Here is the input.
Amino acid sequence: MHIGDQMNDSLIKMLILYCLHRIDRQRTIFSIFHLLKGKKSAQTIQDAHFFQLTNLFHTFTDLTRTEFEELVLEMEKQGYLEGFPHQSFRLTSDGYKHMELFFEKQPIPMSLNGWKFHQVTELFWERLSLAVQVVSHLKSWDSKFIPIQRKKELHSWLKGFIQRTGLNREELGVKLYEELVDCLEEYKENDPSLLVLRLTGYQIIGLTTRQAAEKMNVDNDTYQLRFIALIHYMLENIQENPTDYPILRLFVTEDNEIFPLTHSAKKTYDLLKKGFFIEEIARIRRLKSNTIEDHIVEISLNSSSFDISSFVSTEKQKLILDAIMASNSKQLKQIRQFIPDANYFEIRLVLTRVGEKI
Amino acid sequence: MKLEDVLQKHFNYSSFRIGQKEIISSILGGNHTIAMLPTGTGKSLCYQLPGYLLKGKIVIVSPLLSLMQDQVEQMMMNGEKRVIAFNSFLSHEEKYQALHQLRKYKFIFLSPEMLRSDQVINKLKEIGIDLFVIDEAHCISQWGYDFRPDYNKLGEIRERLGSPLTLALTATATPEVKDDIITSLKIEEWEEYIYSVDRPNISLVVENIRTYQEKTKRMVELITSLEGPGIIYFSSKKLSEQMASLIKEIGFSKIAAYHGGLEQETRILIQQQFIQGQLDVICATSAFGMGINKDNIRYVIHFHMPLQLESYLQEIGRAGRDGKQSLALLLYSPGDEHLPNQLIEGELPGDAQIDWLYDWLIDHREALYNLSLFESEIRRISGFTDNQWRMVEAFLQFNDGEQIEKTIDQLKKFINERMLIKLTKIQDMYRWTQLTDCRRKKILNYFNEEKTIEMRNCCDCCGVDYSGFYSFITKEPSIKIESSFHWKNHLAEILLSERKT
Here is the structure.
């Protein structure tokens, strides 16, 4: 093996080989793409579990299909994999050697747990980075700063967060510091600097992902994977020892808003939170799918923070909203005339977000 | 209360900058007002301050989303919470909510496309407008370098809103642009406040360089020797990235690229790092700079010439807001004047695209009733860019499907006219780079002004002494990982250390 070869062995390529090795021609090459991208289809989720690749689920969300295809083509040229009909590929022995050597030197982080935490990873970072910035400024008695996170819902979450801690400016900084140190100190896989460098505070602006990668002397993909793994470590740690982290815990638990739900809808909600699909819940509860859908509409009506995008994609939501506007009506039938490829459930869900406001 | 007291109370300044008081007094006297103030001289104060004296709402129409966002953030940072940006950054849900609660806000920023909605118009009428502000008013004019078809409808919209008291603001307006603003807004009587576009503390320099390679070399030389902070403008995202990496590789670390293709979090961080002084140089596209409040920028370099003198002036105007001597330097190589042509072609839809659209519309007349539902399909096949689509959409939205052919002809005619205007602007820009007599005089003439004062270091044609622009400190080579960095210390510095301003 030449050193020159190894230079071309990027993390993403080696991860594709790693997955390919696991699925061993039982699936098309694109199942790997869906997995890394985090596609929420029954097939992809089943694959992730079946081939024990749940840790890598949703870890490369920015990857495009074209990029993926190019990577595969390149590795075919390099002789790492060999193609068969129907987009099926097999790892060559050379490919296997490269992959093994690569991960011997830099193993996939143990704490990585894409499937378990993919829904909260980004949110946790957004909340953490904003909270640290705000606490740092509070401490320095400076209220004039540009928040590094722009989303409105994060800002309103933050207000509630500070109230719920019940701490004053001084205590807040100290406690947050102590909990973060406590949470990160035992982490041995990588240097917690990779997270801390990115934090913004009073007169200290955090680094961007690329700047942090440069500083840590690794490529962007490696940095990203380690960063995600570190967040997952924190999430696991907080979940396992909630009493140790009274503040950090607030980053992951929802507002504790107790909203009124029928008993039956409550049960559905609990199952949804565990990650079951509508059909599965229907089977478990021996109810019709329609009924479960009714519950979901009820939940959405009662909790504005309930995320409906897993039932209706955001693009489709937008189209349905346009259709609602165009039809100038709340009657499902009329709305549907403007958007034939939406079903009633989807339209009802979107309607819960429009409410009586118009 | 005196205006100065209001200024002190709400903005913490003790005196007005040039023009501000006159413009504000004009508005408060109930006059429609057209104001031209150069970049970086505090235009936004002209509508913010009246907000504290007028009872009703201040509605500000602003064409650039990023600029709007920056202004809103800036105002919120200064403690004004009753401000909202009503634009496509909001999710649908947020939009409905905002519309419902519009009454709560004092300062309402709107993008022109939001004013297409009857609901928005009706709501605005209901809550009452005391001042209708059109920011970047040159966008109204066909002759403006940044004409927005949406802005064309503002006169009509203004009437529908009951012709409220109006303030049109711009930094750069040639006489024909100004006339266009007045005509399209349908204002009959108005006060005019025009201030010089001249920024005497900025030296204007053009360097003619033979080849691209030499230009790159020269740029590196400049960055490593000029006193920062500075901005270098590039014509493409890719180039800004490449050059930032190149300069980093030679060991100059306090530099980053900034362009619209970066993630929002990254963009915010880089802006803030620059303002805070963690970065010394930004390799930028024209997306950078609006709303950046940084007084001590010492130089602005253009790696390529911009598309017109108006944007050139805007971009160099970011230097020297503290009044200290600053440098605007444009690097020109033969052939650079052809480069913008490609950029323009990307901005305007091509004939083939329009012909395809015509055929498609003939088969899908129903699409005209709700174009937005078909936007993704049309754009997927035709490949319209954001800008191109905005233009096409503005033309089609009032068509009822009866006169498609006529509309398409108008659209084509419009595109040709735009093309001609833009090419003329490039020529003007190019000719300016090739001058042998005073550059300042020429750029002032372009805006119908005369050069009235003489100054040291005016421009390279009049003679510039560079020595004042060079840095005396040797720039330190970058260190990959500072050995002193430890995450716990860093965290302690953020969350524990006592630093009071």
